[in-house]
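Continuing the series of single-chain predictions for the mutant panel. This is the parent chain; the variants come on the following pages.
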Amino acid sequence: MSSGSGGAAGAETFTGAEAVRAQRARILSELLSDVDSLAATAVATMRAEIPAYAAQSEAFLADVRDQVVRQYRGKLAVLLEERTVRPEDIGYVRQSAMRRARAGVALADYINAFRVGQQVFWDSVLARAGRTQAGREAALTLAAPVMRYCDVASTHAAHAYQEFQQYAAAEAARETRDLLETLLAGAVPTRGPELAAAQAHGLCPDTRTPLLVVVAVVLDPYDMVARGPDRGADARHAACAALARTSARGGGRTLSVVRQSEIVAVPVLGPNGDAEELCDRLQALNESLRADGIVLAMGISTVGGGVAQIPRAYQEARAVIDFLPEDGGVAALPRLTPFQYLALCADDTARNLVDPRITALLDEDRARGGVLTATIRAFAAADLNLRTAAERLQIHPNTAQYRLRRIQERTGRSLRHINDLVELLVAIALQDSLPPTNPERKRLAAATNELQAISDVRSFP
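Parent structure:
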């Protein structure tokens, strides 16, 4: 049980446990049924107490009210389930904080508005506690978890607000956007503000500093049909700000720009940079943004040697996004082998070149659980060592030997012949890179696991 319920245990020394729990559930249920009016009261109070909010438009205040409703519902969910705050409970905070910053609201006013919202909520808790001992004790059990929720949410909001302010200051400089367009056009800045901006982001024109290009697209941000087109811009700017703060170890501030419907970032790896490590950071960033309700499809290029490689890297990053499923994710070229990439790009002609006997075996094996396909992968990963492959499959070597004979009988290919083994592995990769559902968009997720067997074949006897 959470520490919130621990407060209930202390109160139960005065009143029966069931009575306190019943009152606690009643208070929270009443609050949940009255969220809309509570939010309206909170916004009216903000308007009365905070001049910066009183001066805003009705559309702005309607957006504040929507934020407060989501905030109250998320907090009540945490209290009703007696658990700690999760990222998805405060996912709305990043977007709302950035919208307030874009509207010109000062951080002090934003935090003050947050405080007002919490005060209205707590006053409502006390009002519903009533005059009974059980009701008062139930309210006391809510004090600590309510404070913890407010601390987490307000800290998250302040960080998001400051992050956007830092981003906005950089984004406001036209040189940053102009610099990106210059680099994508294949030109090199030589003087003036663009050169200064390039140097500030570690993009020195006269060096071959390794770098990547990241292209990200926001997918269906916040149900734009229902909530309005500005939500898409909010999500793009939030993601762009986060990318600007993501750099490789040893790298500086990342050039990151919203470019029409996409976000383009150029992180510099630096002298000690590691492309794999940076891909891990970008993967973690993508998951963090998803928890905040921002779903991205992100493509990462191969490593380029200097700013002259940026146009090529940009085209790579854009193209690899097509390998992602419809719900987004990260497609990172530095994580793929050349063979994996070729399999992902294969067309129907490549699949038609596969021997029909192999295709028939793989189709039948997939329907039966894929034991033969697993045997092929394991045999390749074990460097053609039958006993090692059997151990990894947790079967007897005789069983593994039987499967090899069966594969050879059905396909005419011997797994002990390198050309035959490669042909079988290619056929597996091509088949699984186009699953029956959504064949053109889910290549990466389906193919990568199957292609791992290829990269595991280090040498052959």
